[in-house]
Amino acid sequence: NESGEGAQIKALDLSVVNKIAAGEIIIQPANALKELLENSIDAKSTMIDIQVKDGGLKLLHITDNGKGIHKNDLHLLCERFATSKLSKFEDLESIATYGFRGEALASISHISRLSVVTKTATSPLAYKAFYSNGKLATSSFKAGSDKSVEPKPIAGKDGTQIIVENLFYNVPSRLKAFRSKNDEFAKILDVIGRYAVHAGGVGFSCKKFGESHQVLSTRPQLNLKERIRVVFGTAVANELIDVILDGDEKDEDAEKSYKDEYGLIKVSGAVTNSNFNNKKRIQPVFFINHRLVSCDPLKRALSSIYQFFLPKGNQPFIYLSLEISPQNLDVNVHPTKREVRFLNEEEIIDIICAKVHKVLSNIDSSRKFKAQG
Ligand code: ADP
Ligand code: MG
């Protein structure tokens, strides 16, 4: 025994550390799915197909047509803090990919049966590999000799399939907490829908395993309004107005542009006008530097703007994509990357609200003109 008598503190086993870390990132199947979608988008995919069984607890199967993974990278694929996207801390200031922590696949491999089929454009064959606890494993997900865990060549298309089976099989407390597979499926669909709206040029499809019916399906060529129509419905799509602000704009009495003053490079998106008759709350779709985030201060501020325009109890649909100078944005606040922090938050929120107020009132007054004329 290395420690002296009475010592109580000891380092945890690495496998325990990894399982704890996994629990922070992957709380429910939708978290795993989000990470896998982001990886597919990072890999420049234009089509992403998803199959789900039992709300993702039995199976999450993602097929993309992206750049694939080189055979020689497969042994590190699920190693924690192994990534192709970041090499030094400073790179975080200008990170353009979703991923950078190299933790997602590692985490998932610690709490599920994870396998991969992947092919790069230059490789004549695809390779299939199995993982357990961050490492290559045999086809029955057991640790094995180098030879028995080596990726197997198989026929396949360019791109990557990630197959996640039996999520949380070794975390019984977590597994017990899931009440409804339908709820988990709904959360998965919600994440896919949000990315389908935001990621122009990428098509998404989702179905339940064993069923032919597509629950959601978008093509890469659809424009923003068409994507919103597919995901959020015709009633929303028919009442949309564009919100566009580029950073060269400035306040009436200001000298500097929004970009120079607050680091606000651009805002684009679409929101429903005051005609949209809807009582159901729709969580706003916010992306900041292409990350799906929840930004409660912005959400609250926009709600109060809408109070001027909507009858009591009516709810808007809001999709906004913000681009902020990367040096003003901290994406590394939380492992799930769901929250971000940025400088000049209050000012930026005010600018956006003023813009939304303006587009909503322009529409309202043009309507009154028509009515009078
Ligand atoms: P991160 O995305 O933070 O780098 P991940 O654990 O999500 O970490 O992925 C590890 C690495 O695996 C990525 O850096 C990338 O090189 C590779 N990878 C994961 N998914 C895909 C995919 N769908 N297509 C191509 N490469 C992928
Ligand atoms: Mg990733």
Spell out the key features of this protein.
about 375 residues, alpha+beta, Heat Shock Protein 90, Ribosomal Protein S5, domain 2, 2 domains, 9-stranded mixed sheet, 5-stranded mixed sheet, 16 strands, about 30% helix, about 20% strand, globular, binds adenosine-5'-diphosphate, binds magnesium ion
Listed once per kind, the bound small molecules are: adenosine-5'-diphosphate, magnesium ion
CATH topology of the largest domain: Heat Shock Protein 90
Q: Return residue spans where pLDDT drops below 50 for at least 5 consecutive residues.
A: none
Provide the gyration radius in Å: 23 Å
Structural category: alpha+beta
Question: What composes the largest sheet?
Answer: 9 strands, mixed
What would CATH call the homologous superfamily of the largest domain?
A: Histidine kinase-like ATPase, C-terminal domain
Mean pLDDT: 90
Query: What form results from the Cα inertia axes?
Result: globular
